[in-house]
């Protein structure tokens, strides 16, 4: 609550300061007359612009006084039960709010003789502020370059199949290890008879004609060959 009242008090003080600066004090009847019964108060009041914060100053001699009255008392020039009365010779009335104020002189016959005045207190006009320059229209957008059209694909030939892209391994991969060389198994375990007739053995000497030695050698070779062939057939079965 206190925080709310403080800004409001500051605002009221600022408004009162503005009213003091802009307020004006009007001396009744100036510059050609006064509160004396000879001034046309209706014309003088209509020529002024009264606003809240202004004031009226009545200057008069001892034959006059100032009474503020209601509208009915003003029209009937009734001096009984006034709102305000003063006969000091210099009376200042503060105009604090908008509205209509009624003043008369209470001396006998003076109000009926025309010594009466109506004051219209209007709202103070708001100070005029310079109009802001018209806003410039926004600049039109810059035309953008059209996007290039996509290149047309070359026509396919009839019967042409789309080849799949082959995968090429990167160059920095390690080459696969070479496959081990096949091991050749010696034929001697499968052919034990090779011990009797090795392939690397030198050919027998040519037989000589005649003689039992030659016949025995020929018969032995044939026997060995038949035995090797029988063994090979047995192993194959």
Automatic annotation (TrEMBL):
Record's signal peptide: 1-23
Domain Phytocyanin, first and last residues per copy: 24-123
Record Pfam families: Cu_bind_like
GO molecular function term, any single one: electron transfer activity
InterPro entries (UniProt xref): BlueCu_1_BS, Cupredoxin, Phytocyanin-like, Phytocyanin_dom
Start-end of Basic residues biased regions: 157-167
Biased composition (Pro residues): 127-153
Keyword ATP-binding: no
Gene3D superfamilies linked: Cupredoxins - blue copper proteins
Biased composition (Low complexity): 169-185
Alphabetized UniProt keyword annotations: Copper, Glycoprotein, Metal-binding, Signal
UniProt region (Disordered), positions on chain: 124-185
PANTHER family: BLUE COPPER PROTEIN, OS01G0786500 PROTEIN
Name recorded for this polypeptide: Phytocyanin domain-containing protein
Native source organism of the sequence: Sorghum bicolor (Sorghum)
């Amino acid at each position: 609550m206190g925080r709310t009242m403080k800004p409001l008090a500051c605002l009221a003080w600022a408004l009162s300061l503005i009213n003091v600066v802009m307020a004006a004090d009007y001396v009744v009847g100036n510059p050609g007359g006064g509160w004396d019964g000879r001034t046309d108060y209706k014309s003088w009041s209509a020529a002024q612009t009264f606003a809240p914060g202004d004031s009226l100053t009545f200057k008069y001699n001892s034959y006059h006084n100032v009474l503020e009255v209601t509208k009915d008392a003003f029209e009937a020039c009734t001096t009984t039960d006034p709102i305000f009365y003063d006969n000091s010779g210099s009376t200042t009335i503060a105009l604090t709010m908008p509205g209509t104020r009624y003043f008369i002189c209470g001396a006998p016959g003076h109000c009926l003789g025309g010594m009466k005045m109506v004051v219209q207190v209007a709202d103070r006009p708001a100070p005029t502020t310079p109009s802001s320059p018209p806003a410039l229209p926004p600049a039109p957008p810059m035309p953008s370059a059209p996007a290039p059209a996509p290149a047309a694909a070359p026509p396919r030939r009839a019967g042409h199949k789309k080849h799949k892209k082959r995968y090429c391994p990167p160059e920095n991969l390690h080459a696969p290890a070479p496959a081990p060389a096949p091991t050749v198994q010696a034929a001697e375990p499968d052919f034990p008879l090779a011990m009797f007739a090795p392939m690397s053995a030198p050919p027998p000497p040519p037989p000589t004609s005649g003689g039992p030695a030659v016949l025995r050698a020929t018969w032995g070779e044939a026997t060995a060959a038949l035995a090797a062939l029988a063994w090979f057939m047995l192993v194959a079965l």
